[in-house]
Amino acid sequence: MEGAFILEKLILVVIVFTVSLVIAMYSTLAERKIAGFMQDRHGPHRAGPFGLLQPLCDGGKFFFKEEIIPAGAHKGLFILGPTLAIITACISSAVIPWGQTLEIAGREVSLQVADINVGILYIFGVVALGVYGIMLGGWASNNKFSLMGAIRAASQSISYEIAMGLSIIALLMVTGTLSMGEIVAQQSGFVNWNIWVQPIGFLVFITCAFAECNRVPFDLPECETELVGGYHTEYSSMKLGLYMFSEYINMFVSSALMAALYFGGYNFPFMYDLGLSQNWITIIGVLVFFFKIFGFIFFFMWIRWTLPRFRYDQLMNLGWKMLIPLAIANIVLTAVVTIIKDMYF
Amino acid sequence: MNFWERIYLPSIVKGLGITIRHFFKKIPTIKYPEEQRPYSKNFRGQHSLKRDEQGRERCTACGLCALSCPAEAITMTAAERTKGEEHLYREEKYAAVYEINMLRCIFCGLCEEACPKEAIYLDGPHVTADYLRKDFIYGKDKLVEPVFDIKKLNQENTN
């Protein structure tokens, strides 16, 4: 591996990391602003114009607060919880293809940090690891409510992982590859987007994405009305900040995943018919990709301020008795349609 | 529940429609202090001790306002007008110290109704916040209205 390759990957990693942190930061502001507009009030508007400096104030607040570790808590695991959460949230953005290739100084630079051929499997593995962060936090807090929150989070996560995996199997039957770069490359233009061939799969996937990110209506692990704070009750200052941040980064990565798998990623209609150079197609593709991601993030927040929360047994019922059969039916349907297509067309 | 109610999706879509309608509505919140709502015509705000056309203080420290105040917010100390002060005070008795405790005051306006000299009116803005209790006891420096030029005011009124 030459030095130029390592350098370009390093720069790409730093850029992706910074971008996901900045987007997570401003997602906190966007959440409060959108919540305000939907509730007929302004969101934060004092810190800077339109409240744009509010995330900096929140970050500063987290730095200056006192770090409290409860007396009976297991110190090592207490600190390990949010660490795991933020690490798994950040590394899952490594396999997402942000754009096609850029031509810089004669080299073809791919805008995907790691184009491994099991990209989706990698993401599932990382998401499954993310559950540990929550469980450790709840257990190490030495607090009944945190433990309840952690138990609920763990069971919710593993239940909805299954349905998510099943919907991805159906997608796999259509695309024939697990590599993220190839899945997005197959969706050039507009009519090739996977949403047209897998609508039910997308529905199952988006429901499971909500559950994996612990977002309303599935935010039982951290609801305030039932569990005080859930798994992050005993956390203060930076560790709490890391938990909240990891939730927003997870939301960002889930949105990127949905946009890439079902809505064509960096592809936009008429992309090859406009006669643009490769660099311009890539740059516009990146902008279009981020536009789709922001659309999904808005959808996450829109749903949050519309729906009430699921009760625990309703949540489990939905995950096991409704989504898994639906996902399996989707697989069967996809298989049947594929066979009919091969036989007659 | 029928099939469409059981899958929740139609009601979710209806709910999303309601929320997005509210997203685009005009927000009724006012960003104080950059924007302020106007007071009504009969609003009773801070007190102001008035002067006559020659700029002399009207208040004669008769104590009727303190007597009528239901919250006992007004206190005063009277003094006698000396030789060189005829341009400052109307009559021989005036209030050397006149204090209203804004935390006690209920802004009822009974002092305004009781005053025989038309000296006190409740026509100011609302009392703003402060940090210490002692800063809410307004003395003459905050209550007496500033000196005005009657000729200029009459000109402005006729214009």
TrEMBL record, chain A:
Lineage: superkingdom: Bacteria
InterPro entries according to UniProt: NADH_UbQ_OxRdtase_su1/FPO, NADH_UbQ_OxRdtase_su1_CS
Reaction(s) this enzyme catalyzes, per UniProt: a quinone + NADH + 5 H(+)(in) = a quinol + NAD(+) + 4 H(+)(out)
Subcellular location: Cell membrane; Membrane
Keyword annotations: Cell membrane, Membrane, NAD, Quinone, Translocase, Transmembrane, Transmembrane helix, Ubiquinone
EC top class, as a word: translocase
Membrane spanning stretches: 6-29, 77-99, 119-141, 162-181, 193-211, 248-268, 280-303, 323-340
Location, primary (coarse class): membrane
Membrane topology reported for the UniProt record: Multi-pass membrane protein
GO molecular function: NADH dehydrogenase activity; oxidoreductase activity, acting on NAD(P)H, quinone or similar compound as acceptor; quinone binding
Enzyme nomenclature, EC number: 7.1.1.-
GO biological process, one term: aerobic respiration
GO cellular component assignments: plasma membrane
HAMAP family, per the entry: NDH1_NuoH
NCBIfam families attached to this UniProt entry: PRK06076.1-2
Similarity-based family: Belongs to the complex I subunit 1 family.
Subunit structure as annotated in this protein's UniProt entry: NDH-1 is composed of 14 different subunits. Subunits NuoA, H, J, K, L, M, N constitute the membrane sector of the complex.
Free-text function comment from the UniProt entry: NDH-1 shuttles electrons from NADH, via FMN and iron-sulfur (Fe-S) centers, to quinones in the respiratory chain. The immediate electron acceptor for the enzyme in this species is believed to be ubiquinone. Couples the redox reaction to proton translocation (for every two electrons transferred, four hydrogen ions are translocated across the cytoplasmic membrane), and thus conserves the redox energy in a proton gradient. This subunit may bind ubiquinone.
Record protein name field: NADH-quinone oxidoreductase subunit H
